[in-house]
Specification:
The complex is a heterodimer of chains A (108) and B (113). Chain A is mainly β. Chain A has no helices and 11 strands. Chain B is mostly beta strands and 113 residues long. Chain B contains no helices and 11 strands. In chain B, the strands form 2 sheets. In chain B, strands 2, 4, 5, 6, 9, 10 and 11 form a 7-stranded mixed sheet that branches. Chain B has a 4-stranded antiparallel sheet with strand order 1-3-8-7, with no helix packed on it. In chain B, strand 4 and strand 5 form a beta hairpin. The chains are: A mainly beta (108), B mainly beta (113).
């Protein structure tokens, strides 16, 4: 089993759609969790941290379920500019473990 | 402006040559990391350093070497022993490895001819 596993993509959605990405992790001792966004041929950039209570930043909502070892990212009212690869990332004792990424393509 | 810089952006190398990728940060971060990314794949850790003059192997260290003589700098050498070096190389840093996230440089795209 992969340490961090994400939904396989790509996701192709129309503008305005709501899209959800899911991620599971294998190490129950993992301490912190993040979603990164990576544009084509660019470096990953932090989108948001994920807290147990859930957190929201504008159109983006992240949830963490420690019991199920599950992380999610919800994007509402998707924009063309949201097209990118979304990486689920888990911090295991100072070492970041990256999922393989889920590609999102938002179409007009 | 605080940040991480990597150079060069694109690098071409002939087989059998060593090449060194530069990574510099002015964020005053103690920890620095090197990753490799292949098309359609996630990032894999090559080496990391949590303090000056100390570094550890990551998951795919074979064929690579690093040094950490200054807090700001963490150069990566891709040696001729690395069998498949063509990839996108990313450098990152963080202030508190146990809980913080990492911030990435713009990357170096290495192609072996």
């Amino acid at each position: 089993r992969k340490e961090v596993e994400q939904d396989p993509g790509p996701f192709n959605v129309p503008e305005g759609a709501t899209v959800a990405f899911n991620c599971t992790y294998s190490n129950s001792a993992s301490q912190s969790f993040f979603w990164y966004r990576q544009d084509c041929r660019k470096e990953p950039k932090l989108l948001m941290s994920v807290y147990s209570s859930g957190n929201e930043d504008g159109r983006f909502t992240a949830q963490l379920n420690r019991a199920s070892q599950y992380i999610s990212l919800l994007i509402r009212d998707s924009k063309l500019s949201d097209s990118a690869t979304y990486l689920c990332v888990v911090n295991e004792g100072g070492k970041l473990i990256f999922g393989q990424g889920t590609e999102l393509s938002v179409k007009p | 402006d605080g940040g991480i810089t990597q150079s060069p952006k694109y690098l071409f190398r002939k087989e059998g040559q060593n090449v060194t990728l530069s990574c510099e940060q002015n964020l005053n971060h103690d920890a620095m990391y090197w990753y490799r990314q292949d098309p359609g794949q996630g990032l894999r850790l090559i080496y990391y350093s949590q303090i000056v003059n100390d570094f550890q192997k990551g998951d795919i260290a074979e064929g690579y070497s690093v040094s950490r003589e200054k807090k700001e700098s963490f150069p990566l050498t891709v040696t001729s022993a690395q069998k498949n070096p063509t990839a996108f190389y990313l450098c990152a840093s963080t202030g508190t490895p146990a809980i913080d996230t990492q911030y990435f440089g713009p990357g170096t795209r290495l192609t072996v001819l």
